[in-house]
Design a protein that fits this description.
Radius of gyration: 35 Å
Number of helices: 9
Number of strands: 7
Structural class: alpha+beta
CATH architecture of the largest domain: 2-Layer Sandwich
Largest sheet: 5 strands, mixed
CATH class of the largest domain: Alpha Beta
Helix content: 55-70%
Low-confidence stretches: 1-6
Mean pLDDT: 78
């Protein structure tokens, strides 16, 4: 995009410079021709040196008389454009990202104004995301803290039956664990968001990794009587094994969690040209279009993810992106969900 804008600017500037050069040369030649006619034919100056001197002086005077007003107008026009840009930059520096500069497409400053407007739009988006993140994060922290504080106060204020005490203590323990998981997940997402490359990579069998993740969760899907099917092709990739395990555990755990008893989960790992493709499908409750459009947003929770932290899929998406791959979700309400992950093969 930057190269494209540079090319646009060149296509505007080069013809303008050519026109200006032609105009200056034409003015100089016309002035000199006029002064030659005036000095020799009208005033009848015979001396060659005197004629040349008068011609040069007259040409210079004409040139100054014509060019000074033109340059003055051009300076005022350019200064006005620069002042507009400067004023709007000052507004951005003060935190106003809603400013936009109106311009015509044939304006010499159009590429600069266009980039400025794009910059403001991006800064505005970042500000919104930052505010949403702070609001969501503070809300997610307040909820378990309020629960812990409330039940701890009840335990301190009065003597409760042992069964009720254990129930409250269990809630405190669960909320404490949730708070710890939230902090760890948020730190992981923050680290991944600022990270541009993945280190500690190695060659390993992707099919074997996903098979092991399925075994880790096998007790969960067996308890619900879920039918599990898998097709695992030999597929070696080069990546961070520990980080990618987060992706498979998260997707499979959600599949088990939201698939009803007697449902089905299928996993297929295959090769397509230079890509490894993992497809994980379930016959769970599915998602509507609105939920599906936000499934990878941090802290987003719907009926499908209400019991979680709303960070798992955001983390999974970032890990896949850092690994050079793609992740997409397809779902239909009351039918099921399919996640497709592609990763570059070694």
């Amino acid at each position: 995009m930057r190269r494209k804008n540079e090319n646009k600017e060149k296509t505007r500037v080069l013809p303008l410079l050519l026109i200006q050069s032609i105009a200056i040369i034409t003015l100089a030649l016309s002035s000199f021709t006029f002064m030659t006619w005036l000095v020799t034919d009208i005033f009848g100056v015979k001396s060659t040196y005197a004629a040349v001197g008068y011609e040069a002086l007259g040409t210079l005077i004409i040139f100054i008389v014509v060019m000074v007003p033109i340059n003055t107008v051009a300076y005022i026009h350019t200064n006005k454009k620069l002042s507009t840009l400067s004023d709007n930059i000052r507004k951005v520096a003060d935190g106003d990202y809603s400013v936009r500069i109106c311009y015509k497409t044939n304006d010499s400053m159009a590429p600069i104004y266009e980039d400025f407007n794009k910059m403001c739009a991006e800064l505005g988006s970042v500000k919104i995301l930052r505010n949403d993140f702070i609001n969501s994060y503070s809300h997610e922290f307040r909820t378990p803290i309020a629960s812990i504080n409330g039940f701890a106060s009840l335990l301190l204020e009065k003597k409760l039956p042992e069964e009720e005490e254990r129930e409250y203590l269990q809630i405190i323990a669960d909320e404490s664990e949730r708070l710890s998981n939230l902090a760890n997940s948020t730190l992981l997402l923050s680290r991944l968001s600022s990270q541009q490359i993945i280190t500690d990579t190695e060659d390993y069998d992707l099919s074997e990794q996903i098979r092991q993740c399925s075994i880790i969760l096998s007790q969960s899907w067996m308890d619900k009587g879920i039918s599990f099917e898998g097709e695992f092709a030999d597929c070696t990739i080069h990546g961070n094994k520990e980080l990618l395990q987060h992706v498979w555990i998260n997707i499979l755990d959600n599949a088990v969690k939201y698939t009803p008893e007697g449902g089905e989960i299928s996993v297929t790992v295959s090769k397509e040209k230079n890509l490894a493709k993992a497809v994980i499908s379930d016959t769970g409750e599915g998602m509507d279009e609105e939920t599906l459009s936000h499934i990878f947003d941090p802290y987003f929770r719907s009926s499908r993810t209400a019991s979680g932290l709303g960070l798992g899929m955001a983390i999974a998406k970032r890990i896949v992106e850092l690994s050079g791959g793609t992740i997409k979700a397809e779902s239909e309400k009351d039918t099921g969900t399919t996640f497709t992950v592609t990763l570059p093969i070694k």
